[in-house]
Amino acid sequence: MTGTVVRPAGAPAEPPGRPQPVGALVGQLRELGVREGEVLLVQSSLRAVGPVEGGARGVVEALVRALGARGTLVVYTATPENSRTSPYYRAATAGLTPAELAEYHRGMLAWDRLRTPASPTMGRLAEEVRLRPGALRSAHPQTSFTALGPAAADLTAGHLLECHLGEDSPAGRLYRAGARCLMIGVPVWCCTPLHLLEYWQPDRPEQQYTCVRSGPAGERELLRFTGVRLFDRHFPAMGDLLDRELGDALRRGPVGRAPSFLMPIREAVDLAAKWYPNRAG
After folding, report:
1. What are the Low complexity biased-composition ranges (predicted)?
2. 76: enclosing H helix or E strand
């Protein structure tokens, strides 16, 4: 999930200004509460951050420095375009004739764990982390995570097809690891592991998913599998709850120019899970 910075209609664009040094961002991250040695999921809008020396790479470097050698940086490198049920697919195929739809399906790129970029909707920072030497990516062709640091192998291992964002995914491992989520220039509800609570519901709906993956010999594989049907209509209201109820556990402060939030994943998911069954609407 990603956030968008909205500028009022007709408002002039902010002047770019002088790029901020990487060291200045490191200072902001530490002031916000990022700790050396922790596991940190980052979801961001780099546009909201403003100019930084080195661009997206500079922001990644600041995060790596703030976490230190014992810390692990995690990003969501999902590819929702590789799906026949996602909103991206429905928008791209709306109005196509049967012949055009069949051609679209033939042209869908086979997902490759090492080569396929993160979706542009995930933001440039996610792709920069994926490209960083030593980064490891989980094996789900639709909802992969990428991690960099000592805990990367444990966090990204064994991402089952049927478990997009559940217990046997990096989202579940982030929860169990006591990780936190840093949301840079995006709302609190953009924390993807919040989907975990949907897997805990006794009446959770399921649906069939379809995607294309590159096989062991480079062959094109069409995959069909059943998984929990995920929703995000409730996320903004859930974000309001977290903003009200997390108290001092929810840290606020700037990263560059971007209003940002630092939140413990386990506490956030547990609080939202209590609210979820009785939510309005």
Report:
1. 1-12
2. strand 72-76
Q: Which residues, other chains included, contact 31 with Cβ-Cβ below 8 Å and sequence gap of 6+?
A: 253
Read off the pLDDT of residues 114-154 as tens digits, 9 standing for 90 and up: 999 999 889 899 999 999 999 999 999 999 999 999 999 99
SS3 201: coil
- Closest CA relative to residue 176, chosen from 264, 66, 275, 70: 264
231 CB neighbour count, 10 Å cutoff: 10
**Residue positions counted in the chain:** 281
Q: How many CB atoms are located within 10 Å of the residue 75 CB?
A: 30
Angle formed at CA 9 by CA 4 and CA 14, multiple of 5 degrees: 70
* pLDDT tens readout for residues 158-194: 899 999 999 999 999 999 999 999 999 999 999 999 9
Instruction: Tell me the pTM.
Output: 0.91
How far is Cα 41 from Cα 148, in angstroms, rounded to an integer? 11
Residue 164 near residue 217 (C-beta atoms within 8 A)? no
d(CA 8, CA 11): 6
Strand-by-strand arrangement of the 145-148 sheet: 136-137, 145-148, 72-76, 39-44, 180-184, 258-264, 251-255
